[in-house]
Amino acid sequence: MFLSRRTLISSALLMLLPFVQYANAADSLPNSNLASVATSPLHSVADNLTFANYQQVSIHHIELALNVDFELQQLSGNVILELDWHKAGKTLVLDTRDLTINSVSMLNAKGQWQAVPFRLGVVDKVKGAALTIQFPQERVAKVKINYHTSANPSGIQWLTPEQTQGKQWPFMFSQSQAIHARSWIPLQDTPAVRQTYSATVTTKQGMSVVMSADRTSLSDTQTQFTMPQAIPAYLIAIAAGHLQFAALDKTSGIWAEPEMLAKASKEFTDTPAMIAIAAKRYGDYRWGRYDLLILPPSFPFGGMENPRLSFITPTVIAGDKSLVSLIAHELAHSWSGNLVTNATWRDLWLNEGFTTYVENRIMEDLYGRDRALMEQTISYSELLAELAELPAGDSVLHIDLGERDPDDAFSGVPYVKGQLFLRFLEQKFGRERFDNFVKSYFDHFAFQSITTEQFRNYLTQHLLQRYPNIVSESEVDTWIEGQGLPPFLTPPNSPAFDDIDAQRQAWLDGKAKASALNTQGWTVHQWLRFINEMPRLNLTPAQLLELDNAFHFTGTSNNEIAFAWYSLALDNRYFSVLPALKQHLTEIGRRRLIVPLYQKLASSEHYDWAKTVYLAARSGYHPQTQASLDTMFSDTPIEHQH
Ligand code: BES
Ligand code: ZN
Question: Whole-prediction pTM value?
Fold first, then answer.
């Protein structure tokens, strides 16, 4: 059990505040005798990224009444929080970031809303500001908060019409994971707390509002939502824009701007088959509908698994289904993540590692073992490259976040190392036993938020001890708590890459011209392999030009190939790509596809060029992307490293 300095400091801060009841709030913080209450999930979880006194009182339902104002770029309205008291008390502490709180009231014994005192605490750079509400009596059941968002909330992006596909209508969307829900709703922003929610949302005519919930249109301007399954705050999501819907089948479909709808429907036509495959292997899909929302290109992630409605970047619409593993991934979260949820952000690998594993199993069932193995092999190589750069502590699955924002510790480790760990177990125990284990794990912890420790106990009981002498506790320990990759790992290795590697080598050895290589029938993944494993630092401009002339990488419409190629070009100081790269950096905002390229530019003599491109593109990026790039370009030009 970790007890960080931050928790201690925030306890101390709470004690300084004027209400007597703070003693209670402080008592409820994770500080003592946790073992004795370990049977109650909330009490056993220490999340130091929330101010909330959730171990004492937790929200079980959120009722939102919001207006989406595109002129003001503001969400405003009321939220009613329904409370469960685990221990009597009169204080409720919530998370906020940059919210304006107008008033707070409680439902009193007469059934009336009665104003109650509240205060916003000192702003913490990572956590935001605690909203402390003081009730005159114990065990208040409902509290209502009237509030509005600020000009640039970390969890919302407001887009002008020019930043959309159709150019006629504005757009807005939320991205709450990890700790950004607090920037648009005052709540208990910890994945340890689960709640149902409902919402009534108004906006201007011509716009559609969607949320991660069941949707009913009430009028041209008003939409109602209900999410009857209890979910963590980071899965509450909203978007509004000039959207249309196209069904894929009875229970799944696509929301997109009209200009994108047909292309997206064609690209993601296999979604219903993916749902069927996952449900067959891992148990029923428990969320009703599964729809996809295609966002504008500034969406900062590839995808986000908002329940019933995954948010998807348009950058994976390649025209040939080559990048649809993203859909398998977000869908897989319907089991790993949304059904069984990481209780704290230290446990993110429970979400992402399991999801990356399940994603690849879906890909294997749908498109065959070759494709699945190619994707595993590519991710593995990317992980190796990333591990070479990462602080050793961040290579641990059960990561110690210290005082950091989880976004700042984000890496491929929880994803790919997590997947490798689960593949290791699969290989050791055999598919049948392992599949049964995974399915029973999802059933056992369904609609719960769990820690790595709870996973381990379940693993020990249901796999290690059930089939003894196959995998040891110490091997599991090496995977979960150890740094880097275990020495006993068997890396994935796709035979479909053998020929690619051979041809690359022939070219590097001067035995064949690029134009003479036999690349017929290569898939996108084989091209990625061809580029990714090229030498760094010592290819000549003439060699890169030869590749580009033969294969026309610069300006390619496949965003993964573009990313791979620009990375290779910059690593080898082939700066003829800059004009095309400028377009890539300006037109998309997906962090994984742009931030590493900015990084390479920022440490070259093209720092100033990159800064200029960034400053011109900045207003089109998501606030979270802006935040990382602002830091990168905050100082005066650094000494160029070659
Ligand atoms: N849940 C994640 C996105 C996320 C993780 C947001 C952590 C904030 C904090 C989503 O499911 C995801 O993993 N997206 C990946 C997809 C890829 C690995 C297939 C992405 O956006 O690149
Ligand atoms: Zn994910």
Answer: 0.93
